Amino acid sequence: MSSGKLRVALAALGVVLTAQAATPAGAQSRSFGLQQQKALRPLASPSKRGSADGGDAGLDPVASPENATQMRGPLADTGAAAGLDSPRPGARKPKPFPPEREPYPKPLSPRTPLPPLEPYASSYVAKKAARTRSATTRGPTPPPPSVTVATAPAIPHKPKPKVEANPYDPLGVTLGSMIFSPYVQASGGFDDNPNRLAPAFSPRPSSLVRGEGGVKVKSDWARHSLEGELRGGYSEYFDNRNASRPDATGQMAARYDVTRDASLDLLGKMSLDTMRPGAPALYSGLSSVYVTNRPINLGVGAQGGVTQKFGRLALSVRGTYDRVWYQNGVYSDGTTLNLTSTSYNDFGALLRASYEATPDLKPFVEGTVDSRVHDQPTDFNGFYRDSKGYVVRGGAQINVSELVKGEVSGGYGQRDYQDPRLPPLRGPVIDAALIYTPSPLTTVTLRGSTAMNETTLAYASGALTRSITATLSHDLMRNLNVTLTGSYFTNDYQGTYVRERGANVGVRLEYKVTRSVSLRASYMHELLDSSYANADYTANVYLVGLRFQL
């Protein structure tokens, strides 16, 4: 076929196609498409429906062909109207790519989480929290006033002043790093048996005046230690001058820390007392002759040693020295009783081992050996009194929850004398010093002691003395105190039949006017029951006084 014929055929085909597009059949095709669009369009909700006249007033206007987005191509009027471009109901959304990943690494989450950390008491955080708590407990903060009302600023609440535990106790005098607590006391009263004589000697009562003074010393050092106490007094009896007498006691303890675990220990002590005229050791042998004065006996002592700690174990070694002087007695017939010859020196050594089992329990064992040498080989009865002895004991220092504290020990002691006529002085040794504080107002003190004392009684090696003392102190008010005292003691003159039993019962009332001034009143009843003839006695002492202290 030639090219001319091909062009004619293509032109004819174009005319036919143009004529078909302009015929009513195309209109029918468009009407058919609209009918299908109405069939596929979803129903509108009742609230959006039109009036009851029917028609297409209740249909969604967006779905109509007039409001639909125009599309190009033959499916523009059917596909968009039918909603083919929206997803089907219930269709899954595509997963994001790349998929979301969890944070890495995963945080640790133990099954049992640890408790929160608590700051220690002296840290900055704990102190700040304590200040915050104290600030919040002072009281409710008043609400801020209205902006239209002029008010004065709120006054902050002042903290309550702290209540002092002992407002009437002396404060002491500080000199450098030492604290001194001196006192002076003057008393007057009545004593119905000043010389503690048996009824057979017709004791003469007397009024009395007593003066007393003393001082306590305590160091305030970071290392080392020094502590001591000294007390002395004199009692003057106006109606019985021979009964007037002095008395004094004192002790001083020092510790020098060489290292953390080693220290030097020094101890000094003294005592001054008088012997009662009716004592068996002063008996003249005649019932009508007795000692009229009160012979003075003075004792001083010193100890020195070292203490070394090995962990909880502590070992102490000390050397001891004691010196005792006696004053001569004067009999009623004018003769003199030679007591100065019985003065003696005592040399000894002490070994002690202790172990700190707990902070409240510290058991220990202790051993002492000593030798006594008198100024004269024999006493006025012709007996050789030089002797050697030992004491072994074991015990513990206790501190039970701040209620009970002190020391308890028990053991055995023996003294052997140079004179074969004197039997050994021996027996159990029990010592205790306990303080029981059931409340801040009440204190109970219990003391027990055992001593092997010298004597000049013929055929008696010595006197084994045991004593126990109980004291109850109670504050009726902050400045009013009452103290009850009771004691019991026994004297066993081994080698003879002489046995003595005695007791003291007393009460003391103290009213503290200020820290430095207090008023005191006391009563004491004393008695002694002795198997020795004309040696027992009873006495009652009444005293009222004024005390000054710093």
Automatic annotation (TrEMBL):
<dbReference type="InterPro" id="IPR018759">
    <property type="entry name" value="BBP2_2"/>
</dbReference>
<dbReference type="Pfam" id="PF10082">
    <property type="entry name" value="BBP2_2"/>
</dbReference>
<feature type="region of interest" description="Disordered">
    <location>
        <begin position="22"/>
        <end position="165"/>
    </location>
</feature>
<dbReference type="InterPro" id="IPR036709">
    <property type="entry name" value="Autotransporte_beta_dom_sf"/>
</dbReference>
<feature type="compositionally biased region" description="Pro residues">
    <location>
        <begin position="105"/>
        <end position="118"/>
    </location>
</feature>
<feature type="compositionally biased region" description="Polar residues">
    <location>
        <begin position="26"/>
        <end position="38"/>
    </location>
</feature>
<protein>
    <recommendedName>
        <fullName>Outer membrane beta-barrel protein</fullName>
    </recommendedName>
</protein>
